[in-house]
Design goal:
Elements (H helix, E strand, L loop, with lengths): L1 H18 L7 E5 L6 H17 L3 E5 L6 H8 L7 E5 L2 H7 L10 E10 L1 E6 L7 H10 L5 E4 L5 H13 L4 E4 L3 H10 L4 E5 H9 L3 E6 L14 H4 L8 E8 L4 H15 L2 H9 L3 E2 L5 H22 L5
Parallel strand pairs: 1-2, 1-3, 6-7, 6-8
Antiparallel strand pairs: 3-10, 4-10, 4-11, 5-8, 5-9
Helix pairs in contact: 2-10, 4-12, 6-12
């Protein structure tokens, strides 16, 4: 009788938990990079807006390492209940770059894109390079002598620099850091000479005169990064690169839960004040029309990222 009573109590508790509307407890939002970079900035923006819209705490947890794979693997293996989210760039990059990333594209369900933006090509403020042409000319004459501070294998800055080298016909010596923040600090300290950085990572330093922006990585200048020329104006018209971050949940998360998260994120990211916060940091808020639309975009863009990784010749075991 006691065993039956315990079983009934447990069953009743399970039914109560299942009957609770989503969300009924705090949500964890993981990012694979340390504080100070665009991933962290956008994660905290998204967390704040989700918290306001959903009425529960949304806590950002930084799990840097392995180009974001540690955080992605953790979320891929989390319960598919909507209480564990990931803010990340396209998974196709690391799946192509790493022999064993620990997950596949099928392990995730997209919720929405958060924001898009270019990288910003910056040099130390004491650098002799006043424009992109001078930098390219020096790099061609001195292959490998310019040290590029990169945010880690597979990051947007890494791929932006790889494409730049290919288009410009030059070669840097790239130093991989654990995120955009540490990479930019290396540039400021003078340990490296060039940095392809996400705008939220460097715009404060650009405005403060601590680093010099030579161009953005898109062909045209970006309204979100005023006063900085696009690649075409800077003398490299064939160069065009942008990146984005998006929210993901584990595959198998109930459709209603995904739609609830999507609706909350879109409402928050569409607020004028949120759009402005993101724009000030050099990016554009870009919420997706639906989770299905976001997934379709990710699938359509996957071949581009895989090809870019292949062109880079990079491979991480």
């Amino acid at each position: 009788m006691l065993a039956r009573l315990v079983a009934l109590v447990l069953a009743f508790a399970a039914l109560q938990a299942a009957a609770q509307p989503f969300p009924s407890k705090p949500i964890r939002l993981f990012t694979g990079y340390p504080p100070g970079g665009s991933a962290d900035f956008l994660s905290r923006i998204a967390a704040d807006e989700l918290s306001r819209e959903l009425g529960v705490a949304v806590v950002v947890e930084n799990r840097p390492g392995a180009g974001g794979n540690i955080a992605a693997d953790l979320v891929a293996k989390a319960p598919a209940d909507g209480y564990t989210l990931l803010n990340a760039t396209d998974k196709a990059v690391n799946i192509a770059l790493y022999a064993k990333p620990g997950y596949t594209e099928k392990d995730f369900q997209g919720v929405t894109r958060v924001a898009r933006g270019p990288t910003v090509i910056v040099v130390n403020n004491d650098s002799p390079f006043k424009n992109l042409g001078e930098l390219i000319q020096y790099a061609k004459a001195n292959p490998g002598k310019l040290f590029n501070a990169s945010a880690g294998y597979g990051s947007a800055p890494h791929l932006a620099s790889v494409l730049f080298e290919s288009v410009a016909g030059i070669k840097f010596t790239s130093v991989q850091f654990k995120g955009g923040g540490p990479a930019t600090q290396s540039l400021i300290a003078g340990d490296t000479q060039i940095n392809f950085a996400t705008a939220p990572t460097v715009m404060g330093f650009v405005r403060a005169g601590r680093v010099r922006a030579l161009a953005v990585s898109t062909r045209r200048a970006s309204p979100a990064v005023p006063g900085v020329p696009g690649a075409e104006e800077a003398g490299l018209p064939s160069y065009n690169f942008s990146f984005s971050f998006g929210l993901y949940v584990p595959a198998g998360t109930p459709r209603a839960t995904v739609e609830r998260l999507h609706a909350a994120a879109v409402r928050g990211l569409s607020k004028p004040e949120t759009v402005e916060k993101i724009a000030v940091q050099g990016m554009d808020a870009a919420p997706s029309a639906s989770p299905e639309a976001f997934d379709a975009e990710i699938r359509a863009e996957a071949p581009y990222w895989k090809n870019l990784v292949a062109q880079s010749g990079a491979k991480v075991e």
